[in-house]
Design goal:
- It comes from Mesorhizobium neociceri.
- Belongs to the RecF family.
- GO terms for molecular function: ATP binding; single-stranded DNA binding.
- The protein is of the alpha/beta class.
- It has helices at about 40-50, 60-65, 140-155, 155-175, 180-215, 235-240, 245-255, 260-265, 290-315, 330-345, and strands spanning about 5-15, 20-25, 30-35, 75-80, 85-90, 105, 110, 125, 225-230, 275-280, 285, 320, 350, 365-370, 375.
- The protein has a domain at about 1-125 and about 315-380: Rossmann fold, CATH 3.40.50.300.
- It binds adenosine-5'-triphosphate (ATP).
- Adenosine-5'-triphosphate binds near residues 17 and 66.
C-alpha cells in the first residue's frame, strides 16, 4: 500500500481556546481524550480548516479567533508524504484587517491563490455528533455532506459550487428587485446552467462510484451497507443524456420559470434543491427510520467506503476526523472501526472524554490528553 501523507506537526496560534500550541503527530490513529470543554473538538476543527470551506463547525472566523486575542488566528501544519514534506499555513490577520474576508493560505511559505491549493496535498473528511441527525434532518445538510465527499475526489467541485451560488444569488437579486432585464437574466442563467450541470454530473459520478464501492465490500460487515441515490432533476438527467443537452434544458427551464420564481422570491429549480437518499440495505428501510446507533453505523460505513474509494482513485486516502466516534458504537463495532482504519492506512483523529473506550488501540495509536489549552501524552498508554 502506498505511503499516505500525514500531518506530522500542527501549530495553533490564537485558535479557539489555544493561545499557542505545537504538537507532533504520528501517522495512523490519534486519540484525543479529555474533559468536556477541554478543547478536543477545537483541534479537529483546526485540522478541518486544512481543506477549503469553513471547517467542521462552519463558524464565522470571528468566533474561531481566540477570545482575548487580536482577532486573528493562524494554523500551521507540516505534512509528511511520499513526495517529501510540505508546510501549509492558513488563518486570518487580526487588528484592523480582521473581518469576514477569506482566510489566507500559504503553501511552503508562498501565498496560494485560493484555499483549493490545499487539496493538492491532503483531503479531509469528518463525522461529528452534529451529523447524527443527518438522515432525518434537512436536505441542505445531506447536500453539504455529499459535496464534501465529492470535493475529496474532485478538487474542482468547490469552485463550481461557489460559482453556482454566486450566479444564483445574482438571479435571486434580479427577481426580488423586480428586474425584467432579459439580457442580465440570460447571462446569469447561462452561468447557472453550466455550473449547475457540472455540479450535478460530479455528484452523480461520486454516487455511482461510491455505490459500486459499497457493493464490493462484504455485506455482513459491522457497518451496514447503504443504498445511496440522488434525488434531483439535473442529477437524474445527467445520468441519461449528454451534459450539453441537460444544460440547454435547464437554461430554458430557468428562463420559463422566471415569473414563478419571481412570485417565490427565489430560484426554485436547480442542484441547490437536490438530496442524497440513503437506505439501510439489510433492513430494507430508509435511514431516517433506523435507530440512532444504526444510523451512526450506516454513516461510518459510508465514510469508510468513501475513504477507500478516494484512496484508490487519487492515491490520497483522506485524513479522517471522527469526533466522539465511540459514542453509539458498541465494543465490537469500535474494534472493527479501528481495524478498518489501520487497513486503510490513513491518519484518523478520534476524540472522546474517556481514553478507555479506545483501549483496544493501545500500542497501535498515539494517545494525547487535552487539558484546557495544553496537549500531552496520555498516561499509561
Ligand atoms: N474563540 C474562543 N476563544 C476562547 N475559547 C473558546 C473560543 N471558542 C470556544 N472556546 C472554548 O473552547 C472550549 C470548547 O472546546 P471543545 O468544543 O473543543 O471541547 P471538547 O473537548 O470537544 O468538549 P466536549 O467533550 O464537551 O465536546 C470551551 O471551553 C469554549 O469556551
Amino acid at each position: 500500500m502506498p505511503e499516505q501523507s500525514h500531518i506530522s506537526k500542527l501549530t495553533l496560534t490564537n485558535f479557539r481556546n489555544y493561545a499557542s500550541l505545537t504538537i507532533d503527530l504520528s501517522p495512523g490513529a490519534v486519540v484525543f481524550s479529555g474533559d468536556n470543554g477541554a478543547g478536543k473538538t477545537n483541534l479537529l476543527e483546526a485540522i478541518s480548516l486544512l481543506t477549503p470551506g469553513r471547517g467542521l463547525r462552519r463558524a464565522p472566523y470571528a468566533d474561531v479567533a481566540r477570545e482575548g486575542g487580536d482577532g486573528g488566528f493562524a494554523l500551521h501544519a507540516r505534512l509528511d508524504g511520499p513526495d517529501g514534506q510540505v508546510e501549509i499555513g492558513t488563518g486570518i490577520t487580526g487588528g484592523e484587517a480582521a473581518g469576514e474576508g477569506g482566510r489566507k493560505v500559504r503553501i511552503n511559505g508562498a501565498p496560494a491563490r485560493s484555499a483549493d491549493a490545499m487539496l493538492e496535498w491532503l483531503r479531509v473528511v469528518w463525522l461529528t455528533p452534529a451529523m447524527d441527525g443527518l438522515f432525518p434532518g434537512p436536505a441542505a445538510d445531506r447536500r453539504r455532506f455529499l459535496d464534501r465527499l465529492v470535493l475529496a475526489i474532485d478538487p474542482g467541485h468547490g469552485q463550481r459550487a461557489l460559482d453556482y451560488e454566486k450566479a444564483m444569488r445574482g438571479r435571486n437579486r434580479l427577481l426580488t428587485d423586480g428586474s425584467r432585464d432579459g439580457g442580465w437574466f440570460e447571462a446569469i442563467e447561462m452561468q447557472m446552467a453550466e455550473t449547475g450541470v457540472a455540479i450535478a454530473a460530479a455528484r452523480a459520478e461520486l454516487v455511482r462510484l461510491l455505490a459500486a464501492m459499497i457493493d464490493r465490500l462484504p455485506s455482513s460487515g459491522p457497518f451496514p451497507q447503504a443504498d445511496i441515490r440522488l434525488s434531483g432533476d439535473l442529477e437524474e438527467q445527467v445520468a441519461n443524456a449528454p451534459a450539453v443537452d441537460v444544460e440547454e434544458r435547464y437554461r430554458a427551464a430557468l428562463a420559463e420559470g422566471r415569473e414563478r420564481d419571481r412570485a417565490a422570491g427565489r430560484t426554485l429549480d436547480g442542484p441547490h434543491r437536490s438530496d442524497l437518499l440513503v437506505r439501510h440495505r439489510p433492513k430494507a428501510m430508509p435511514a431516517e427510520l433506523c435507530s440512532t446507533g444504526e444510523q451512526k453505523a450506516l454513516l461510518v460505513g459510508i465514510v469508510l467506503s468513501h475513504a477507500r474509494l478516494t484512496g484508490e482513485m487519487s492515491g490520497m486516502t483522506p485524513i479522517l476526523l471522527l469526533d466522539e466516534i465511540a459514542a453509539h458504537l458498541d465494543a465490537g463495532r469500535r474494534a472493527a472501526l479501528f481495524s478498518i482504519l489501520e487497513e486503510l492506512n490513513c491518519q484518523a483523529f478520534m476524540t472522546g472524554t474517556d481514553a478507555a473506550l479506545f483501549s483496544s488501540l493501545r500500542g497501535r495509536a498515539q494517545f494525547l490528553t487535552v487539558d484546557h489549552g495544553t496537549v500531552g501524552p496520555t498516561e499509561g498508554t
